[in-house]
Design goal:
Largest interface: A-B, 52 and 47 residues
Strand order of the largest sheet of chain B: 4-3-2-7-8
Mean pLDDT of chain B: 79
Strand order of the largest sheet of chain A: 5-4-3-6-7
Oligomer: heterodimer
Distance between the termini of chain B: 99 Å
Radius of gyration of chain A: 26 Å
Order of helices and strands of chain B: HEHEEEHEEEHHE
Helix content of chain A: 25-40%
Number of strands of chain A: 8
Order of helices and strands of chain A: HEEEHEEHEHEE
Largest sheet of chain A: 5 strands, mixed
Largest sheet of chain B: 5 strands, mixed
Low-confidence stretches of chain A: none
Number of helices of chain B: 5
Helix content of chain B: 25-40%
Number of strands of chain B: 8
Distance between the termini of chain A: 84 Å
Strand content of chain A: 15-25%
Strand content of chain B: 15-25%
Chain lengths: 156, 198
């Protein structure tokens, strides 16, 4: 009787795929956590203007959004037809913008403050008057980096 | 008799991976990454009233773009269509010395990293954009877009000539001399209240 077993006499055991689901689940959880689902419900009409020279916004954590537009249908009876400014979850006035920016700055590191961008999400039908006033408020609080939200225009 | 060890029955988990993949793909498809895109601009800081008079720019250096409440475009005193704005702006930005109507310019030698010394012409051009309070945001953005596009096209041309790739692909070091040649001087004047309410 030989001391060593003959190699290859036994069939190779099947490769266990038991850990595969674990890996995929890990991926799944990563994705669920990494993609932030915006919880701000938009209360204004939003139809973005088109532009060709758009750039992607880097560092999403440093972006704060100001929505401007006509109130959505459900809110029109209460707030009328005039364009409204939405900060966070409610309609605000121009005077609230400095507070809003200050609050956004509060939880950022000081070195990041100059990199903070304010994204103006303005409906294309809005007149410039209100947009200019918002821009003036932003200038006053020294939030100078802005981004006019637009969608990619492939026709031009 | 040889002892036979009984292995516990193994549950077939092969399909588990499929299910997980299904979930994963579902998630990938439904959650939009919400890529924020737009035109990046920088607002000018607030200037003290008294300083404002000191900044005087010669008329020939300024490219005046006016948009009124009816979304009509007036460029350098002429009524114009938005489609022609890009071309017209480029015409203005490209230095052409000797022309009295074109912005002032002077020759300089720039050291371009990776390329060497290059003779360039710098101009004192400024694009001034003024809109009315009644201008629609859509029109305003289209004008902005055309102005930025004019600069971007010229920058791309220069980047192509010097480095053989587009401006966006350059490193900061490479991009800075191009920014010197074509600075994006788009100034926005305070809007006028002429047409309509708001």
């Amino acid at each position: 009787m030989s001391k060593f077993k003959k190699k290859g006499s036994k069939e190779a055991p099947p490769i266990s795929t038991a850990s595969l689901p674990d890996i995929v689940f890990m991926l799944l959880f990563f994705f669920m956590i990494a993609t932030v689902i915006r919880d701000t419900s938009i209360l204004v009409d939003q139809e973005m203007p088109k532009a060709t020279e758009i750039q992607k916004l880097q560092k999403k954590s440093l972006v704060s959004c100001i929505y401007i537009g006509r109130p959505i249908k459900e809110m029109r009876s209460k707030y009328g037809d005039e364009p409204q400014i939405q900060l966070n979850d409610t309609y605000k006035t121009l005077n609230d913008i400095p507070d809003f920016i200050a609050k956004e700055r509060e939880d950022k590191i000081e070195a990041q403050v100059p990199q903070m961008t304010t994204s103006l999400k303005v409906d294309k039908k809005v007149k410039m008057g209100i947009v200019t006033k918002v821009k003036q408020e932003l200038r006053k609080v020294n939030a100078l980096k802005i981004n006019y939200a637009a969608t990619e225009d492939n026709d031009r | 008799m040889a002892r036979k060890r009984r292995l516990p029955q193994e549950i077939n988990a092969g399909s588990m991976a499929d299910i997980a993949f299904l979930l994963l793909i579902f998630f990938l498809v439904t959650t939009q990454m919400n890529a924020d895109k737009g035109l990046l601009r920088k607002l000018p800081p607030i200037v003290e009233e008294e300083n404002q008079d000191n900044i005087k720019i010669k008329e020939r250096n300024v490219f005046v773009v006016l948009v009124n409440a009816n979304d009509q475009l007036l460029v350098e005193g002429k009524l114009m269509d938005v489609k022609n704005l890009r071309h017209e702006t480029k015409e203005f930005i490209i230095p052409s010395c000797g022309d009295e109507l074109q912005p002032e310019c002077k020759d300089t030698v720039l050291s371009v990293p990776g390329v060497g010394q290059r003779k360039v012409i710098l101009t004192k051009q400024v694009v001034s954009l003024q809109n009315d309070n009644g201008t629609s945001y859509d029109m305003y953005l289209r004008v902005q877009n055309e102005l930025i596009a004019a600069y971007n096209e010229l920058r791309n041309e220069l980047a192509e000539e010097w480095y053989g790739k587009i401006f966006d692909k350059l490193t900061d070091d490479q991009a800075s001399p191009i920014k010197v040649v074509y600075p994006q001087n788009i100034s926005e004047a305070e809007p006028k209240q002429v047409g309509g309410p708001q």
